[in-house]
Amino acid sequence: MAESPTPTADSDSRVRTCHPADTVREYLERGWWQPETLPELFQHRVDAAPDAPAVTDPANLADLTGARPRTLSWRELDEHSIDLAALLYRNGIRQGDTVAVLLPNSVALTATYFALWRLGAVATPMPASYRRHELSGIVDAAEATAIITVDAMSGRQLASEALTVECTVFAFGASVPEGAIALDDPVDAADRERLSDYARALKISVNDRVTICWTSGTEAAPKGIPRCHGDWLAMAWGVQDGLHLTAESVLLNPFPMVNMAGFAASLLPWLLTGGHLVQHHPLDLPVFLGQIARHRVTHTSMPPALLTMLLHNEQLRASVDLSSLRRVGSGGAPLPPSVVRGWQERLGIEVLNFFGSNEGVCLMGAPVDFPDPDTRARYLPRYGAPGVRWATRLAESTRVKLVDVVTGATVTEVGGAGELRLAGPAVFGGYLPGTATAEPFDEDGFLCSGDVFELCGPDGRYLRFVDRIKEIIIRGGMNIAPAEIEGLLADAPGVADVAVIGYPDPVLGEKCCAFVVPAPGATVTLHDLVEHLRAREVASFKLPERLEIVESLPRNPVGKLLRRELRATLLDDRP
Questions:
Q1: Contacts 24+ apart (CB under 8 A), 243-246
Q2: What is the CATH number of domain 472-572?
Q3: Separation CA 187–CA 184 (nearest Å)
């Protein structure tokens, strides 16, 4: 841990931690947590390669915010972060303060995080698409003292919207409205000296809160998820063990840097190893593919639907240069085995299968553990399985069990299914008070994930995702997992994207409806889908009984399906 003289009382008294002291001590003694903090690791990167490219703006930033895209070296990013921290300090931001961050993926967002962490402040980020309703709710729940945003984005006046919320507003941009503090204002030597004096006096622990992220809110009001230096970096190392980033890697980040997808799959592995982080926002396929070619990107992430579309669209692939790509992470929905195999055998690019949550651990299907792409698409590692060693160090420190959702018994037989429960150094310490109504841990201290998995493979060494507990469709007393049917239909001819939703039935309780986005020029019928499933010998009660053709499926900023919106359309259509 970073040890230094005790800071002034006005900052020290507001520091909040995430885990009990004995837990922190155990994690450090076992080597499951490292003593370095995020600012210390950032300084290591600056010292190691000060003139190497560190971060690049989205290519379309001028269209988004009016700002000119730029690339900063590690030294330049450090200096930008120092200036931001000095300006924030001048305007009252101190250790323990929580600051709401409403910015697109950019150099500015990256520098803002490190500026806040230099001060010992807490970032509570949110998607740039959030408006006053979401912003005011999060500011209140997190007791945020300030908001950092941009003057305008995509025709919206973000800084003006933020000024309607009761707290200090900071904004980037050339047209910062009256009442907000411009983050492009210059700082002088005296500002930097005051910041330096303050920072030297800070006492920072790896257990100090650094972020409050938020559940996606796809089905209910979002819950606050505090995380500290230690558990974020334990998560990051777990992901890095599969990504294999180096100081020469170029990482393209398409997911908003507001929660697990952006932090654990991009920002933090990049911080651990160095390299070049290329930001992207919002997901725009021509821009995304252009960035891969221009920057010679080696690693990125893609949702399964995009992997499928690119594999099947040879004309589009032929128009861009993907030859630099080595590894692509994917998750959030079942991965079609034929797609994972196609990327590996036809394109020479390995797809990693990720499954994680803001609260818990990232389960990672890495090529070294799952050389066969079909197996990698279908299964995830069961960390802690007896006699099995996995590529990620998280496997050695994470305890996993499946619990029958009806009986509460621990599932031990291959083929059995139950709720995934987790404990270990990458699991969060509990929800932000006031944002959750139920305790997320069981009596043994395991996080109750709400996700149902099946025990599979030799000796139960694999886990197969079934579905979220609350998404299970009950048809005449029989349980149907939408994710299972979606995974099978993703390989059906003519299907570009698919979702399966339950809808009310007066006799059976619920039936299945398939929402399908057809591939360009394709026609999909309910008969086609049913016959595709019958050919795979799927039980008859699982077959969809209704088909809705749509142009796209509603998803949140990190690609998670918004089932409630699809369900609402079915309810609206009732006679």
A1: 243/269, 243/299, 243/327, 243/329, 243/352, 244/327, 245/269, 245/270, 245/272, 245/273, 245/275, 245/299, 246/273, 246/274, 246/275
A2: 3.30.300.30
A3: 9
Taking the CB of residue 324, how many other CB atoms lie within 10 A of it? 14
Q: Per-residue pLDDT for 13 more than 60?
A: no
Residues paired with residue 123 on neighbouring β-strands, in sequence order: 99, 211
**210 - beta bridge partners?**
none
pLDDT > 90? residue 424: yes
Phi and psi angles of residue 415, each rounded to the nearest 5 degrees, phi first: 100, -15
- Residue 370 has a pLDDT of 96
| Average of per-residue pLDDT across 41-69 | 97
Q: CA 261 to CA 553: how far, in whole Å? A: 19
Could you read off the pLDDT of 135-185 as tens digits, one per residue? 999 999 999 999 999 999 999 999 999 999 999 999 999 999 999 999 998
Report CA torsion sign: 289, 290, 291, 294. Answer: positive
- Strand 350-355, strand 122-125: pairing: unpaired
pLDDT, one tens digit per residue, over 286-339 is 999 999 999 999 999 998 878 988 998 888 888 999 999 999 999 877 788 999
Q: Report yes or no: 152 and 65 within 8 Å, Cβ to Cβ.
A: yes
Read off the tokens for 448.
């109750």
One-letter amino acid of 117: W
Radius of gyration of the chain (CA): 24
Structure confidence at residue 573 (pLDDT): 60
Task: Please return the burial class of 21, using the count of CB atoms within 10 Å of its CB with bins 0-12, 13-18 and 19+.
Answer: exposed
Cβ atoms of 247 and 49 within 8 Å: the answer is yes
Who's near 84: CB < 8 A, 6+ residues apart? 111, 112, 115, 183
Q: Would you give the end-to-end CA distance of the chain in angstroms?
A: 63
- Sequence spans of domains, the chain: 9-226, 302-470, 472-572
**Which letter does DSSP use for residue 33 in this model?**
S
Distance CA 236, CA 394 (A): 10
Sign of CA dihedral 403, 404, 409, 410: negative
Q: Answer whether 291's CB lies under 8 Å from 300's CB.
A: no
The CATH code of the domain at 302-470 is 3.40.50.12780
Specify the residue for token string 């980040």.
253
CA-CA distance, 61 to 72, in Å (whole number)?
Answer: 15
Domains 9-226 and 472-572 share a fold: no
Query: Where is pLDDT greater, at 538 or 427?
Result: 427
pLDDT digits (tens, 9 = 90+) for 342-352: 999 999 999 99
Class at the top of the CATH hierarchy for domain 9-226: alpha beta
The SS3 of residue 361 is coil
Global confidence as pTM: 0.85
Helices within 154-215 (DSSP H only): 158-162, 189-201
Q: Which of 360, 309, 354 is nearest to 333 (CA)?
A: 354
Mean pLDDT (whole number) for 517-525: 94
Determine the distance from the C-alpha atom of residue 308 to the mean position of all C-alpha atoms in its chain, rounded to a whole number: 20
Place of tokens 């003694």: 29
